[in-house]
Amino acid sequence: MSVKKRAIILSLVVSILLMLAKFAAYFITGSNSILTDAAESIVNVIAGSFAFYSIYLSTQPRDENHPYGHGKVEFFSAFVEGILILIAGVIIIFKSSYNLIYPHAVGQLLEGTLIIGITGLINMIVGLYLINVGKDQHSITLQADGKHLLTDTYTSVAIVVGLILIQLTNIIWLDSLLSVLVGFYIVYSGYKLTRGSVGGLMDESDFTLVEEVVEVLQKNRHNPWIDVHNLRTQQYGPELHIDCHVTLPYYFDLNKVHREISQIDELINSNGVRKAELFIHADPCLPECCHYCHMSECPVRSEAFRKEIVWTPEIVIKNKKHFENELL
Questions:
Q1: Sequence ranges of the chain with CATH classification 3.30.70.1350
Q2: pLDDT by residue for the chain (328 residues), tens digit each?
Q3: How many Å apart are CA 305 and CA 327, to the nearest integer?
Q4: Pair 46, 54: CB distance under 8 Å
Q5: DSSP structural state of residue 312
Q6: Are 244 and 230 in contact (CB under 8 A)?
Q7: Nearest to residue 308, comparing CAs of 184, 223, 217?
Q8: pTM above 0.85, yes or no
Q9: Do residues 249 and 298 lie in contact, with contact meaning Cβ atoms separated by under 8 Å?
Q10: 3-class DSSP state of 267
Q11: Parallel, antiparallel, or unpaired for β 227-236 and 239-248?
Q12: DSSP letter (8 states) at residue 291
């Protein structure tokens, strides 16, 4: 069994056990804020189940119908999880607002506080584990599930603090007020998760990754690599695809062009950047490129080298040769 599958199974089992514990705490106390935490745990279980299926599907090999693999399902999984969190938050706000107007008695808060505190600690440990595994395995699903559990931890901490205040002050309506505030935080967390997953589904560029790739190319650039432009990144679950155009001397034969492109591929995949599949288009150089070209023994040079153009993300993502950028 893969590391990702073990991690998501652990998350699902823990979510079920903690959900049962929180509902037990609610039946003991009758606390509206504890019910809020328990209701969010239902979302954890549903989201964890869907995440398990998405992890299973994303690890399947490419086929004729899915030439880029099945990794994008992880973004869809994160989107569903975010929507579920949003719905749970809205329901919590409405119910807690009603109980704020029509409060009801609560009891045995000490036992309930202890149970919620323990569940929050467990969620924090499992959440941090999922985030670390998700980053290591480049799994958006595991990271989303881990962040969800950390959100659950923060709400549990807030609820524990609120329950302690209720016991100290005997102000019952604090229970519902706290639940409303936690509900708004849950809605905000669901929005952030949904926003990130939609960005992935829409192939939103990962600018941090672009910076890493450009830094590697700039530090190890070869003289024939006159410029790099139209660089784009695309993620399919754990798989990464990079497209770019590279300007090479127009008199290079096909074997030499292939060798230069292969060196770029090897460079990116061996220098700390995430393993990626590259699609590199070779462009022929033009006389306007001469003033920033490093080919000192070029047989067709029409102008002397004047200054190197430093590759930056802002330059390489444009679909223009560097001299065209200078004209803007």
A1: 207-327
A2: 678 788 888 888 888 998 899 899 888 888 777 877 787 788 778 777 877 777 777 677 777 777 666 667 777 777 887 887 788 778 778 877 877 777 666 667 788 889 988 998 999 999 999 999 888 877 777 887 888 788 788 878 877 887 888 778 877 777 778 778 877 887 887 888 788 777 766 666 667 778 888 999 999 999 999 999 999 887 766 667 889 999 999 999 999 999 999 999 999 888 755 678 889 999 999 999 999 999 988 999 988 899 889 999 989 999 888 876 765 5
A3: 18
A4: no
A5: -
A6: yes
A7: 223
A8: no
A9: yes
A10: helix
A11: antiparallel
A12: G
> Hey, what CATH topology would domain 3-201 get?
Alpha-lytic protease prodomain-like (1.20.1510)
99 closest CA partner among 185, 30, 32, 28: 32
Residue 150's contacts (CB-CB under 8 Å, 6 or more residues apart) are 123, 124, 127, 128, 131
CATH of domain 207-327: 3.30.70.1350
Tokens of 63: 């086929």
Write down the H helix ranges in the chain: 3-29, 32-58, 73-101, 109-137, 140-169, 173-201, 207-219, 254-268, 313-316, 322-327
Report phi then psi at 246, rounded to 5: -125, 125
Helix (H, G, I), strand (E, B) or coil at 14: helix
Delimiting residues of CATH 1.20.1510.10 domain(s) in the chain: 3-201
Strand, helix or coil for residue 234: strand
Instruction: Write out the DSSP string of 96-111.
Output: HHHHHHS------HHH
Count of Cβ atoms closer than 10 Å to residue 195 Cβ: 12
Cα–Cα distances in angstroms (integers) from residue 84 to residues 104, 148, 177, 215, in the given order: 28, 11, 22, 39
User: Given the structure tokens 């670390």, which residue do they identify?
Assistant: 132
DSSP-derived pairing of the beta strands 239-248 and 276-284: parallel
